[in-house]
Automatic annotation (TrEMBL):
Keywords: Cell membrane, Membrane, Transmembrane, Transmembrane helix, Transport
UniProt topology in membrane: Multi-pass membrane protein
Protein's GO biological process: transmembrane transport
CDD domains per UniProt: TM_PBP2
Boundaries of every ABC transmembrane type-1 domain copy: 85-265
Gene3D superfamilies: MetI-like
Protein name: Aliphatic sulfonates transport permeaseprotein SsuC
The keyword Cell membrane is annotated on this UniProt entry: yes
PANTHER family, sorted: ABC TRANSPORTER PERMEASE PROTEIN MJ0413-RELATED (PTHR30151:SF0), ALKANE SULFONATE ABC TRANSPORTER-RELATED, MEMBRANE SUBUNIT (PTHR30151)
Subcellular location: Cell membrane
């Protein structure tokens, strides 16, 4: 007699019964969603407060949340916070905007036309493995110490990843859509501008959202090397004088800026590509 082979896996998967929490793909209730979002912030905050209050760690190494808020107020009163945040945002905005303007047409072109892909993919695939911070000495030699090398560093660190992610998104455009357009009398330009480009727009916004984080990593590195102002420079100055409370405050500001940018890209996706979100 032959036993049925499917009974064993069912027993192993008993712990993952489809409850509200363990839903796959489907949305969870809005109340539970906001509760979990709040929990993701509250748990680290409570752990931080508990560790700093218990006295297990020297306050010089782990300042309390109250000391960090105090440092935040000091930075604001001295005018550093607004000046440094503005400088860093300007550098990230400039470098990332240049990378976005260049990467969209190149990425769509590489994904659409195999000839352009064959021409550019090898060199872009080669250059993207060169760490962007390794270009800093050359950028300083070529562009000096002002804003251009910092903006150029962010541009180099994001443009190649943007291009390849957009190119990959174009590869997944259903061929049926393209064939249907041709069947209905569409021309190549219409396929490119009215089928491929709108189809990959949500992926382009997603690529920007992901690679924006890399821009902020790079601006901090650039400001650590050569800058008189900026959030990265302020972190370096705080480290020099062992002001860990200021370092924590600046890191929280960097995280807050990144979080707001992430929300902005999600909002942009919702209003510009409703068909993809729904």
């Amino acid at each position: 007699m032959i036993s049925h082979p499917t009974s064993a896996p069912d027993t192993k998967l008993e712990g993952l019964r489809p409850t509200v929490f363990w839903r796959i793909v489907d949305d969870i209730p809005i109340g539970l969603k906001w509760f979990l979002i709040a929990l993701s912030f509250l748990v680290p905050l409570i752990l931080w407060w508990g560790l700093s209050s218990a006295g297990f760690v020297d306050p010089k190494f782990l300042p309390s949340p109250a000391k960090v808020i105090e440092a935040f107020g000091t930075l604001w009163e001295k005018g550093y916070l607004l000046k440094d945040t503005t400088a860093s945002c300007f550098r990230v905005g400039g470098g990332f905007l240049l990378a976005a303007v260049l990467s969209v047409p190149i990425g769509i072109g590489m994904g659409t036309f195999p000839s352009i892909r064959a021409l550019l993919e090898p060199i872009i695939g080669f250059v993207r493995y060169m760490p962007a911070p390794a270009f800093i000495p050359l950028l300083i030699i070529y562009l000096g110490l002002d804003e251009p090398p910092k903006i150029a560093l962010i541009f180099i660190g994001t443009v190649f990843f943007n291009i390849l992610m957009i190119m990959d998104a174009v590869k997944f455009v259903p061929k049926e859509l393209i064939e249907t357009t041709y069947t209905l009398g569409g021309r190549q330009r219409q396929v490119l501008m009215q089928v491929i480009t709108p189809y990959v727009m949500p992926k382009i916004i997603d690529a920007f959202r992901v690679n924006m984080a890399a821009s902020w990593n790079l601006v901090v590195i650039a400001e650590l090397v050569a800058a008189t102002e900026g959030l990265g420079k302020r972190v370096e100055l705080a480290q020099r004088f062992f002001r860990t409370d200021e370092i924590f405050a600046l890191l929280l500001i960097l995280g807050l800026i990144g979080f707001c940018l992430d929300l902005f890209f999600r909002w942009l996706l919702n209003i510009s590509c409703k068909w993809a979100v729904d």
